[in-house]
Design brief:
two-stranded antiparallel ribbon; 9 helices; 3 domains; D-Maltodextrin-Binding Protein, domain 2; Arc Repressor Mutant, subunit A; 8-stranded mixed sheet; 12 strands; 296 residues; alpha/beta
């Protein structure tokens, strides 16, 4: 196998016209340059230089290797530039997964800021509803995912970065007897028929745990596939529902929304990042943008 470094030495000799000039340009001794060229000739199995007066000129094989050395030199320079851009966050590619209700209020402004500040970074963005996006990170299919996990939650190989808490609100049919109260105790809803808006998982756990703390288990009479559908069922008078604030960005005109206390169920929204991905400038920039968007 030909030694790439020796090929660059040969190139220096050919372009400068002599071993002495090449040695001066490279910072080597003439003897060291001659040894490198001799070693390359041994690897190639053919003469690469021939003497002409006080200088040298390449043989056909020497010209061939010099041309390839020039190509390799350009490729190495391009690789070094690309690596520097990646290292400094000017380029890169991120695979990001999120759930729908985090899209408009958190993901969209964060992505806009990333594109403004780091236009060379490509983002592969997709929702995973109704599935939990965390497995995408743990399997190495995504660099970052927006997930719901309890505070202090852990998973091997994953760092959870808290973005915001998303409190649940009581959603009532317009004119419901409880709508007269500005803030409801969660226990006020114990005897009501419920419209389910959550699939099994961390979001539903927050609701079930809150109801258990208030001393009851919700009587779910109908399931909604999503928050918009759940609001429609509530508006039709089929029951009440608990929906997080981010799920109420678009409110049905025929529902009333009230705060809850004692307790107030909350889902904690985090960015889940593979430990091995931390420190990448593009990823750190995106985390900063997500924190800023979530804080607003």
């Amino acid at each position: 196998m030909l030694d790439v470094r020796r090929m660059q030495v040969l190139r220096a000799v050919v372009t400068s016209g002599s071993v002495t000039a090449a040695a001066a340009n490279l910072g080597y001794t003439p003897s060291a340059v001659s040894q490198q060229v001799a070693a390359l000739e041994k690897q190639a199995g053919i003469a690469l230089l021939e003497r002409v007066g006080r200088g040298v000129r390449p043989t056909a094989a020497g010209r061939l290797l010099t041309e390839h050395a020039a190509v390799i030199g350009r490729q190495v320079a391009a690789a070094e530039t690309a690596l520097a851009d990646l290292r400094d966050g000017r380029t890169g590619r991120l695979t990001v997964r999120y759930f729908a209700t985090a899209g408009a209020t958190v993901m969209a402004p964060a992505l806009a800021r990333l594109r403004e500040e780091h236009p060379g970074v490509r983002v592969d963005l997709a929702t995973t509803d109704p599935a939990d996006p965390l497995p995408e990170v743990t399997r190495g299919h995504a660099d970052l995912a927006i997930v719901v996990r309890p505070h202090g939650g852990s998973h091997e190989g994953v760092r959870f970065v808290h973005l915001r808490d998303d409190p649940y609100r009581a959603v009532l049919p317009r004119g419901h007897r409880l709508a007269a109260k500005r803030i409801l105790d969660l226990a006020d809803l114990a005897a009501e028929p419920w419209v389910g808006g959550e699939r099994p998982g961390p979001c539903l756990d927050a609701v079930i745990d809150g109801c258990a703390a208030a001393g009851f288990s919700p009587n779910v009479v109908v399931e909604g596939d999503d928050y918009a559908t759940a609001q429609g069922f509530v508006a039709a008078g089929l029951g009440i529902s608990l929906i997080p604030e981010l799920g109420l960005t678009h409110r049905h005109p025929s529902v009333t929304v009230r705060r809850i206390r004692r307790p107030e169920p909350v889902r904690a929204i985090h960015a889940a990042v593979r430990e091995t991905s931390l420190g990448q400038p593009a990823l750190e920039a995106f985390l900063t943008a997500l924190r800023s968007a979530a804080a607003r």
